[in-house]
Amino acid sequence: MLNLLAAGGTGRISRRQLLGLGSQGALGLALQPLLLAEAAQAAAPARSSAKARQCIYIFLCGGPSQLDLWDPKPDALDTIRGPFKSIDTSVPGIRFTELIPRVASHADKLAVIRSMHHGSADHNFGIAHTLLGQLPASANDLFVTRRDHPALGAILHKLRGDCGVLPPWVTLPRPFTTLSPPHKGQSAGFLGASYDSVTLNEPKIDSLAPKELRLEALDRPADVSADRFDARRRLLTQSNVSPGAGSDAQARWEGEVSRAMEMLSGPACRRAFDLSSEPDSVRDRYGRNEYGQSFLLARRLVEAGVRMVNVFWTYFDKKGCQFNLWDNHGVTTDICGVGGILTGEQMLTHDYCTPSFDRAFSALLEDLEARGLLDETLVAVAGEFGRTPKINTMAGRDHWPFCYSQLLAGGGVRGGQVYGTSDKTAAYVKENPVTPDDFAATILHAFGVDPGAMIEDRFSRPFRLSEGTPLASLFG
């Protein structure tokens, strides 16, 4: 629908195009999830004392090191402790490393889960497991299909309904892939495309360059004037074309047309996605790169009413070569033009990694609190696994899923706490083990959603929302 309304050319819409408007394929790809969304059919559980109304889910692609960030072991051997000093945070007794001093000053807002674990050291499997919030069906089925269990953003859309003219779920700066289709946990799966996220699809080039992130689907081509756009809107209104017979179907169709018109011509959606309206000082504070501007845009979106924003942190060079910067094994050749041979230590301290994260994440926490948004905005920071306790010959660390750390803040989570403990080398969980399933269940719990509730596929087959157990003690 949006493609036909905004498209250039003769301005004529054929009868075949009009009849095709009832099908999903005629919709603009970026906005079709919103425009096809049905009214929520599943009764959402009572919110009770749940505080989260929106969530920013940050994924550090590649597997960040627990020992070099959130769970330092200053008394371990040099070959385990690593080169980075541990530092005090804003909470007595909680220590981070010198790589994230700004984030350390916000430890009073954070719940640090130091007992994450699962059983696979494979990137693709770990990513799918974490984003999906449950084990994939098999090691050969790790990328999105319509058979998948729906991701968290889709579940919340289904249970909580639409967000006015704004999309309920947005992905920034693009869906996450590694020379592959998107990994599981990034689609609505069996709920259908109506519940998929709206994606920016930012070009895969030069992540450290100044960015102006935009949702291009909101733009009319230069040769489509406001008058021509209005004429197409009137034609649609007069056509009485709908996807099915009956008053309910017609009402849904008219609602979809109305939302499409408002998104394309109204100010609310454009304003939410417009980073240029932010003061230069704020944009500079977050960092004038893809990472910082994605975090800033995520704040703007939840402030405007978007329920779920996924932010994926990976690196692309000026030629579009991808580099998993958090995967700090160390590199022996010049990958993506990042400087030839790099040790794992150099990877972590490069501008594309911890310096940019420390700046952007601390700015996000400050901004959410200053605007009174943190109490109702759950912020999650995750990766697919952690890193080996033992440092390798490239001064880096290898894949390690048996013990690692993740973060939660806001949304009713009590800050200034550590959940679970690792052993003396952060190799294995010592107390209170947590799985990716539990982490996903905790996000649902923050919204007042029972992870054990059922959701149906299009064949009316029931599936549990989550197999995990929420960490209820983090709240309150």
From TrEMBL:
Gene3D superfamilies: Alkaline Phosphatase, subunit A (3.40.720.10). Signal peptide: none annotated. This is DUF1501 domain-containing protein. It comes from Singulisphaera sp. Ch08.
